[in-house]
Each structure stands twice: as C-alpha cells, then as structure tokens.
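Because discrete structure vocabularies remain unfamiliar, we turn briefly to a single example record, giving the amino acid sequence and backbone structure tokens:
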Amino acid sequence: MSFEKSRQLHERSARSLAGGVSSNIRLGEKPTPLFFERGEGSHLLDVDGNDYVDYMLGQGPDIFGHSPRFAIDAVTQAMQKGITYAGQHETEIRVSEMIQT
C-alpha cells in the first residue's frame, strides 16, 4: 500500500491546521493521517487508491453507508428548488414538528 499522496497532503495541511488534522484522534495515525477521496456503501477510498472497509461507519452516523442513493436523490431534489430563501419555508415547520415528537 502506498500513502505518498496522504503524506504530501498532511505536510500541506500542517501549515494551516493545528497538527495538520481536523480532529486530534487522527494525530497518531501511522504512517500518516489518511486523506480520503470518496466513500461508497461500506467502503472508503483514500487519495492513494487504497480501499478500506469502514467498520466505524463515520464514527456511527453513517448507518446507511456512504453516498446512499436515496439521500443523494433527496438532497438533489431539494436543492433544485432553491438553497437559501432568507424567508420562511414549510419544510422548516415539518422538521421542527418531527423533532418535537
């Protein structure tokens, strides 16, 4: 397995992020903190082309895996209607009602 691109990105990130990482849990990763390119289902692909099974599922919240089609479709459909209205929208009522129950 090669980690050269991750190593280079870590060197670069060390110039702008404390310790070169966005979470201190990644400080001890050896040989270098990994930089991921994408996730699909239960797999993660790093910038060096290495494929990993994500047993942690994003530390817990990715119960549907990475890039679930239904979520991508729902977000795409919502964004096609507009992103920021700077006004009230019925969806915020529905979400607040769901949170209250």
Q: What stands out?
A: The chain has one domain: 4-100. The longest helix spans residues 69-79. The first strand starts at residue 36 and ends at 40.
